[in-house]
């Protein structure tokens, strides 16, 4: 930490602390995530390092940029760019009831989708999309962040059913203890879009049981007709209870009312991301998992694995070092990260 001057703590969570620092080298401000690893087993430490390796390969103008990582005094430190504009959650709360314009909402939403497309194209799931993890730079550019609580998972039944997330953003399939897939990220994306339109959570209740019931039923207050039919219809698609009926992020971006906005945010990096995604990052599978849904007190039943996970022929596995997980509704294997 000698290279950085601590300024203040700006967050704390299950992963550890988030600290705003100033580099003694270039005088720029960064956010450092401090994760205690002194009590971790050697396997858990290796797991954390692998997660950082995945993080280091996420390069996109709408994703918070990784700078470096290091270990010191029993802690793992991950250095990320600092988004001076704060997070979308605070931006929404600061509106104090005044709705955003549709133009503003769609500009933000397109940028979030471009970031998520970059992630999904690489067969990676974010698994913690929420307004607190979407940041704004000084010039107002949206950046998707917080991959720091990542878990790279192998293809056992338990691992395929693991989820991480704030309860407001849990999808119906997660509430029913079904496998998490890319369409669960799409549900969370819908929750964020709804918040931008209403300044409220789509699904709220006084306790976890009632919240889960609302999510499973897909019942939420309608968005005001102040917004276009295109926008309201999109929300209805994102909130389809059956994940197979939700659009992919690529299908969202080709909708005419969104596609015409994309050129505003294109850059050489984004254009490059349109090329076929490179092969999986050579990372070994993690062994230890958590069951975050359990901490909310949701009684999750254990189901038979059935077809949730299918074995991949040995010949197809040879060039792939990261274990593949086939989840419901997907034809391609997905990799989990945070």
UniProtKB/TrEMBL annotation:
Domain (Protein kinase) ranges: 4-258
Where are the annotated coiled coils located?
none
What does the entry list as the binding residues for ATP? 33
Q: Does the keyword Transcription apply?
A: no
Which InterPro entries does the entry link to?
Kinase-like_dom_sf (IPR011009), NEK_Ser/Thr_kinase_NIMA (IPR051131), Prot_kinase_dom (IPR000719), Protein_kinase_ATP_BS (IPR017441), Ser/Thr_kinase_AS (IPR008271)
SUPFAM superfamilies named among the record's database cross-references? Protein kinase-like (PK-like) (SSF56112)
Domain of life assignment = Eukaryota
Matching Pfam families: Pkinase (PF00069)
State one molecular function term (GO).
Answer: metal ion binding
Q: What is its EC number?
A: 2.7.11.1
Which UniProt keywords are given for this protein, alphabetically ordered?
ATP-binding, Kinase, Magnesium, Metal-binding, Nucleotide-binding, Serine/threonine-protein kinase, Transferase
Swiss-Prot/TrEMBL catalytic activity: L-seryl-[protein] + ATP = O-phospho-L-seryl-[protein] + ADP + H(+); L-threonyl-[protein] + ATP = O-phospho-L-threonyl-[protein] + ADP + H(+)
What family name appears in the similarity comment?
A: Belongs to the protein kinase superfamily. NEK Ser/Thr protein kinase family. NIMA subfamily.
Its recorded name reads non-specific serine/threonine protein kinase
Q: Which organism is it from?
A: Sinocyclocheilus rhinocerous
């Amino acid at each position: 930490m000698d290279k950085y001057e601590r300024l203040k703590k700006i967050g704390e969570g299950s992963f550890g602390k988030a600290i705003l620092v100033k580099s003694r080298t270039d005088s720029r401000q960064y956010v450092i995530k401090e994760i205690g690893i002194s009590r971790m087993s050697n396997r858990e430490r290796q797991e954390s390092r692998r997660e950082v390796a995945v993080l280091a390969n996420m390069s996109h103008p709408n994703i918070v940029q990784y700078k470096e990582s290091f270990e010191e005094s029993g802690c793992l430190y991950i250095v990320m760019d600092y988004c001076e504009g704060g997070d979308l959650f605070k931006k929404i709360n600061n509106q104090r009831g005044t709705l955003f314009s549709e133009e503003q909402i769609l500009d933000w939403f397109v940028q979030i989708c471009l970031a998520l497309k970059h992630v999904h194209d690489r067969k990676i799931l974010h698994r913690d999309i929420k307004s607190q993890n979407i940041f704004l730079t000084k010039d107002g550019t949206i950046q998707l962040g917080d991959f720091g609580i990542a878990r790279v998972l192998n293809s056992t039944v338990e691992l395929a059913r693991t989820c991480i997330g704030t309860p407001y953003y849990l999808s119906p399939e997660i509430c029913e203890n079904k496998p998490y897939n890319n369409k669960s990220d799409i549900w969370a994306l819908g929750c964020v879009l709804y918040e931008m339109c209403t300044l409220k959570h789509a699904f709220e209740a006084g306790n976890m049981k009632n919240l889960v019931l609302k999510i499973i039923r897909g019942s939420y207050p309608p968005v005001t007709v102040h917004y276009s039919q295109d926008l309201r219809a999109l929300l209805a698609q994102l909130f389809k209870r059956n994940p197979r009926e939700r659009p992919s992020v690529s299908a969202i971006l080709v909708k005419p009312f969104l596609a015409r906005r994309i050129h505003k945010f294109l850059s050489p990096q984004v254009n490059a991301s349109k090329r076929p995604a490179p092969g999986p990052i050579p990372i070994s599978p993690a062994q230890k998992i958590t069951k975050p849904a359990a901490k909310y007190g949701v009684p999750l039943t254990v189901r038979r694995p059935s077809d949730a996970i299918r074995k991949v022929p040995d010949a197809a596995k040879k060039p792939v070092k990261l274990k593949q997980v086939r989840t419901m509704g997907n034809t391609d294997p997905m990799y989990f990260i945070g």
